[in-house]
Design brief:
By secondary structure, the chain is mainly alpha-helical. About 60% of the residues lie in helices and about 0% in strands. One of its GO terms (biological process) is cell division.
Length: about 290
């Protein structure tokens, strides 16, 4: 798995669009192999299956999703999770770096650069779901700013939608990231895009769903996989403590706001927040989610 990740990292670190595309597909293939089980494929060694899925995703046509309860016992997932605990093999940090480079590249007339950004965001969402401790990287100002930049009105609707999905995943059960989102004017960014006349309807719907999510009661994750207990999170905390004025402190200084406090903050940028809260309480769309 290290060899495959090393190859993918080299590709997405390139300035060549074709290599970046190949690297993103290799990461996608690895995630697919972890999440999918082959129903009718011929038996092969685990290493062979992982490499093949990274190169040729067409072979996954007959695959079916694994049950969540199966992942913890899957050797490939356990190895992947172990590798993600350190900076050297953490895929989310590499994809974020790739996204930053893509934003700095000249936009292509055929939209291929936009497709690479969307592919990066799709991979990033999967990575944050498979390895929740990686969400801690969005407790850093520069990474949160990157996500908010992708919500710029000048970006295409597909990028805006994909960015919102990653933003939800980055904030999910990670209050310290929500505080960073607020400090970096995330509420202003989201509500401005929501009120912008040029925002297409399906993006506006996703923005409304995000606001519902934001207003949910907060609760930290109390589990072995929680960001606060992760080796990766600990490394970020140590780094934050050695940099004066960086990001408002380490991950251990998490503070949780009440729904009423968040309602007051959102009301500075949006009217009828009370109506949103009432709808949220009546419909309870995220009954099993803690943001």
């Amino acid at each position: 798995m290290e060899a495959l990740l090393s190859l993918a990292f080299d590709n997405i670190a390139s300035k060549d669009a074709s290599k970046i595309r190949k690297g993103l597909r290799q990461i996608e293939g690895l995630l697919a192999q972890i999440c999918l089980s082959n129903g009718k494929s011929k038996p092969s060694t685990p290493a062979h299956r992982r490499n093949a899925s990274a190169i040729n995703l067409g072979e996954q046509k007959q695959s079916t999703p694994k049950k969540l309860s199966q992942l913890g016992e899957d050797p490939a997932f356990r190895e992947f999770f172990r590798l993600q605990e350190g900076f050297e093999w953490n895929v989310a940090t590499r994809v974020v770096d790739c996204l930053e480079r893509l934003l700095g590249m000249t936009a292509s007339k055929d939209g291929s650069n936009d497709l690479l950004i969307i592919s990066s965001l799709s991979n990033l969402q999967g990575l944050l779901l498979l390895h929740p401790p990686s969400r801690v990287i969005f407790g850093r100002r520069t990474n949160m700013d990157l996500l908010l930049d992708l919500l710029d009105p000048y970006n295409c609707p597909a990028i805006q939608s994909a960015s919102l999905l990653v933003l939800v995943t980055a904030l999910l059960a990670t209050p310290q990231n929500t505080r960073m989102f607020e400090r970096r004017d995330g509420l202003l960014t989201v509500t401005s895009l929501f009120k912008d006349e040029g925002t297409v309807q399906h993006v506006r719907v996703k923005l409304l769903e995000f606001l519902y999510f934001y207003l949910m009661p907060e609760a930290p994750v109390q589990s072995a996989s929680a960001p606060s207990t992760s080796k990766l999170a600990g490394a970020f905390e140590r780094r934050s403590s050695t940099i004066s004025g960086d990001d408002g402190g380490g991950v251990a200084k998490t503070n949780i706001l009440t729904q009423e406090q968040k309602q007051e903050m959102l009301a500075q940028f949006l009217n009828n927040v009370e109506g949103l809260v009432q709808d949220l309480q009546e419909s309870a769309p995220f009954t099993s989610v803690a943001c």
